[in-house]
Amino acid sequence: MSELDAFGRGFSSYEELWHWSVTDLEGFWAKVWDHFEVRGSYDRVLGSSEMPGAAWFPGAELNYAEHMLGLPEDAERPAVLAYSQTRAPLSLTFGELAEQVARARAGLRRLGVSRGDRVVAYLPNIPETLVAFLACASLGAIWACCAPEFGARSVIDRFAQIEPTVLLTVGGYTYGVKEVDKSADVAVIRAGLPSVRHVIGVSYGQYTAVSDMSWPELLAEPGPPEFDRLPFAHPLYVLFSSGTTGLPKAIVHGHGGIVLEHLKAHAFHLDTRPGDRLLWHTTTAWMMWNVLVSGLLRRAAIVLTDGNPQFPDLGAQWRLAAEAQVSLFGTSPAYLMACRAAGVEAGDLPRLRTLGVTGSPLPAEGFDWATEQLGVPVNSLSGGTDICSAFVAGNPWVPPRRGELTAPCLGVDVTAFDAAGREVVGEVGELVVRRPMPSMPVGFWNDPAHQRYRAAYFDTYPGVWRHGDWVTMSAERGFVISGRSDATLNRGGVRLGTAELYAVVEELPDVDDSLVVHLEDVDGGPGELVLFAVTRGTLDDGLRERIRRALREQLSPRHVPDRIEGVPAVPRTLTGKKLETPIKQILRGRPIAEVISADAVSDYAAVEAFAKQRRRE
């Protein structure tokens, strides 16, 4: 029986349960608190329900780390299974994890770290990262992390905003067969963070960072398992936006909001159960790392992975899932589509109960392949760093629908609005949330009047969260994500989502990747729709015609590009999102340096190739 079955007794359908959860916010979130026996107390659920500025559980005090580390009876349960291309696998029980967290907390105390101080990490997805994070949370320090594949400039742009006092770092790592020495970057980062008083080096494989203190020295002295009870909105961590067009937004999330939202998301939407094993390949820079590790809230074991996920071949992730005996396997649509195109089989995964998919829209063909290969529900989710969770996702009560995200998440009053702020069904609109969520940001760092926060989400529809995605909501409240609204194509006044175009083009056997932009005519003409394609062979007139024919037949004549150009690669952010809007600005003549930070993209050479593709007048 799923946890949703127990929680939802008395409701005849998911639709009925969801409707109650968004019309009686106080009743729903009080029931979530009580159902999961959250440790702490509260008098009221909502002090104010206005957005922005909703005041959740005023007067309540709790601690995220206390809920992550379990009770004494959990001590022998598996908590962490870690696989790395830099060193041998290792594992931790809940008891071992709690002991290391207590030692790290004591070590941070010796360094003078206290409530409100910022501790940052340049660390991969390894147990030391989790231990340091939970130690910070236990004493009320504020955490932030960048993955080691980030360049020094990108790290400084993020960390300098919050003025950290402690930096944890590795000196390098192994990525497939490639040895990556990060010592030069670490030196630049240290020099660029004058607020840092202590550097803790985590030895990783052959790499040891220059530091003031080693990881074993930090953990040298035992300490009791202690957890400072903190106000509900006390900052837990800072997550950063992609920063492709300027300084990344420093988004602050609080202890209470993350405890409640992640309990709800794991139990009711990912169907995470005690004793499960969860694998979601992610770096520490993506919010899915934060979601993954919160599986510990449900007494599940988390599988931490570091290295090239496609080494030595595309099937590596499926083999790891089999070895770790996972019940949840999380991945990206791109990985599923690549496996489908290459004829890779997922293999036998007898304990698998759910396939999670996020990062971009999953084409219907990918849904079919995954369903045929795995025989389990395909749970496609969409949310973001902004809420560190999902707006829409699957759940055990509603069967997944091909090509759709199944339903709104509980407690999330998500819908689609037209330009006038009216709800629309069956047509493309803006994804909005009409009522507050506990995991909406506490705020942005260094934004005391919430001006930047308000401008980011609430300027278009006052009092309503506008997320920036184009969606189509069905009569059954299923959702199809069409792409970012700032990258939407406008052909003759008709808005077209980029996601559906990519699904058709990248299904063609001769196309590996693509990016499309609409270049409006400054004089009011129809403009030009340009498709850039990464092809396996020559992009000749025959392939161009096959692309146009596929788009015309499968979508509409409006989707047919005016021009199709070949490029060596499609530029992406460090978390894998296509750089549609920045590339459009470059094609309109803006210098690259004004549009994109070199350290914020995975392949800067790919960006430079687009500068040669200026719009033809």
Overall description:
- With 617 residues, the chain is of the alpha/beta class.
- 30% of the residues lie in helices and 23% in strands.
- It is built from 20 helices and 33 strands.
- It has a seven-stranded mixed sheet with strand order 5-4-17-16-18-19-20. A five-stranded parallel sheet has the order 7-6-8-11-12, sandwiched between helices. A four-stranded antiparallel sheet has the order 24-25-27-28.
- The longest helix has 17 residues, at 94-110.
- The N and C termini lie far apart (63 Å).
Element layout with pairings:
Elements: H1 3-7, H2 14-23, H3 25-35, E1 46-48, E2 55-56, E3 61-62, H4 64-68, E4 78-84, E5 90-93, H5 94-110, E6 118-122, H6 127-139, E7 142-146, H7 152-159, E8 166-169, E9 172-175, E10 178-181, H8 183-192, E11 198-201, E12 213-214, H9 215-218, E13 230-231, E14 235-240, E15 250-254, H10 255-269, E16 277-280, H11 287-293, E17 301-306, H12 316-324, E18 328-331, H13 333-342, E19 354-357, H14 364-374, E20 378-380, E21 382-384, E22 389-393, E23 407-408, E24 414-417, E25 428-433, E26 443-444, H15 451-457, E27 465-473, E28 479-484, E29 489-491, E30 494-496, H16 498-505, E31 511-519, E32 528-535, H17 541-554, E33 563-566, H18 580-587, H19 592-595, H20 604-611
Parallel strand pairs: 4-17, 6-7, 6-8, 8-11, 11-12, 16-17, 16-18, 18-19, 19-20, 32-33
Antiparallel strand pairs: 1-2, 3-13, 4-5, 9-10, 14-15, 15-26, 21-22, 22-23, 24-25, 25-27, 27-28, 29-30, 31-32
